[in-house]
Specification:
The protein has helices at about 15-25, 30-35, 35-40, 45-50, 90-100, 125-145, 145-155, 190-210, 250-265, 270-290, 295-305, 345-350, 360-380, 385-400, 405-415, 420-435, and strands at about 65-75, 75-85, 105-115, 115-120, 160-165, 175-180, 215-220, 230-240, 315-320, 320-330. By secondary structure, it is α+β, with helices and mostly antiparallel strands. It has four domains: about 1-60, no CATH class; about 85-110 and about 230-385, Alpha-Beta Complex (3-hydroxy-3-methylglutaryl-coenzyme A Reductase, Chain A, domain 2), CATH 3.90.770.10; about 115-220, Alpha-Beta Plaits; about 390-435. Helix 6 crosses helix 8, helix 10 (about 270-290) packs antiparallel against helix 11 and helix 14 packs antiparallel against helix 15 (about 405-415). The model has no long low-confidence stretch (mean pLDDT about 90).
Length: about 425
């Protein structure tokens, strides 16, 4: 049994020392510990850059960097970088993108670019005064932060508005001051938080100037809930052009597809998995471009619950013989700042996309999500989700079973028209080994 003792002063140690300590504390053999070295870059300067992204770095965790080709958005063609570890996601998105490329591609229906953050504070006996003087407060706060917003304003961004609300639920007695921002091509988290903290510092000064009691600042922080920073995309074509596969005629396919979408809008059991399928594609682009996929996930799932019940992020309908499918995603992405330029493959991903603006990147990420969503629902209402997924998962099963190159070649041929499962692959490999003896 590995001895369990508290490690002290760990963050102050050099990387090699950290690896040795964790190897001794966590592994029973040196082979496992060797992976720390095997996945470390030979380029020391580049490795040091990677180690600065986070803390207590031991090594690098590699994920496949793939591409979804032929994504047509507003008649522009993109070959979209995607980072994901799950089989069939990129293949499904690529198939859907190719299918819709010939039917007009993805079209932008709506786009909005307003982010927000809050300062929460208590301020006794000021309700009536604030009700009539809130614009005076807003003007003061905007002037008090002008030295911080000047640079962003030159890029077309800055503070776009204010709102204030009294929070009284559950015996809470506090104000919520919301500040709205346009952060141009940056995700803007650091900018927003800096401005909000300056506003928190300015509030007591404002109170002093107006001979009022001092407010108690509780906290100042951006919100990852960004319903006004969103993009809506649409796919559409005549029903007779929905020749996705040969198992169903287009009209039957379209009608069944719409029913499946309606289920996702009304049943949380389906909606969660439905939206996960959307985020398979969107997160892959967000991660590839060095953006914050956790913030994106938080925003979209909160938005999916906006009506009081968790529901589908996408919808579909048939009207006047036209099939339409729409997806609205609220998210805050950036193409400058953060990891977008200092992470080598994130920088490469943005170059692949011809260095898009932040609004353009939002469309691209949403298109990847909508492509995956269409492909998944199309599979569900026709051949079933496992038919294609397990074919692509075959490689992973073969690797986990330590199959040889020859066995992999024969297995792919054998399972071309057969159902793939772990048990079936194991049986195939056992039979192959017996025949070889």
């Amino acid at each position: 049994m590995i001895e369990q003792t508290k490690i002290r002063g760990f963050s102050q140690l050099e990387t090699d020392e950290k690896r040795k300590i964790i190897a001794q504390a966590c592994f029973n053999n040196q082979h496992e510990a060797d992976y720390f070295n095997e996945f470390t870059l030979n380029d020391k300067a580049l490795q040091e850059t990677f180690e600065q992204f986070s803390e207590n770095t031991l090594t690098n965790h590699h994920l496949p960097f793939g591409v979804i080709p032929n994504v047509r958005i507003d008649d522009r063609i993109y070959h979209v970088p995607a980072v994901i570890e799950e089989s069939s996601v990129i293949a499904a998105a690529a198939k859907a993108a190719s299918f819709w490329f010939d039917r007009g591609g993805f079209k932008t229906i709506d786009e909005r670019f307003v982010k927000n953050g809050q300062v929460y504070f208590s301020w006794n006996n000021t309700d009536k005064w604030l009700e009539t003087n809130k614009n005076k407060l807003f003007s003061y706060l905007k002037n008090a932060t002008s030295h911080l917003t000047e640079s962003m304003e030159k890029r077309g961004g800055g503070i776009t508005g204010f709102d204030i609300k009294k929070l009284t639920d559950n015996n809470l007695d506090a104000y919520k001051l919301t500040v709205y921002f346009n952060t141009a091509d940056s995700m803007g988290a650091n900018f927003i938080n800096t401005v909000l903290e300056e506003i928190a510092n300015a509030l007591p000064l404002f109170a002093e100037q107006h001979n009022m009691n001092e407010p108690e600042i509780i906290m100042a922080i951006l919100s990852n809930y960004t319903p006004e920073n969103s993009v809506t995309l649409e796919l559409s074509c005549p029903v007779e052009e929905l020749t996705w596969n040969s198992t169903l005629p287009p009209k039957q396919f379209a009608e069944k597809f719409v029913k499946a979408m309606q289920i996702a809008q009304n049943d949380v059991s389906r909606a969660v998995t439905h939206n996960k399928g959307i985020m398979n594609g969107t997160d892959a682009v967000v991660l590839a471009t060095g953006n914050d996929y956790r913030a994106t996930e938080a925003a979209v799932h909160a938005f999916a619950s906006e009506g009081g019940q968790y529901s589908s992020l996408s919808k579909a309908e048939i009207s006047d013989g036209i099939f339409r499918m729409q997806l609205k995603l609220p998210m805050a992405l950036g193409t400058v700042g953060g990891l977008t330029k200092i992470h080598p493959t994130a920088s490469l991903a943005l170059k692949m996309l011809n260095n898009p603006t932040a609004p353009e990147l939002m469309k691209i990420a949403a298109a990847a999500g909508l492509a995956n969503n269409f492909a998944a629902v199309a599979a569900l209402v026709s051949t079933g989700i496992q038919h294609g997924h397990m074919k692509l998962h075959l490689n992973n099963i073969l690797m986990s079973e330590n199959a040889t190159q020859e066995q992999r070649r024969l297995a792919k041929k054998w399972f071309a028209n057969r159902t793939v499962s772990v048990q079936a692959v194991r049986a195939f490999l056992q039979n192959h080994n017996e025949m070889a003896q």
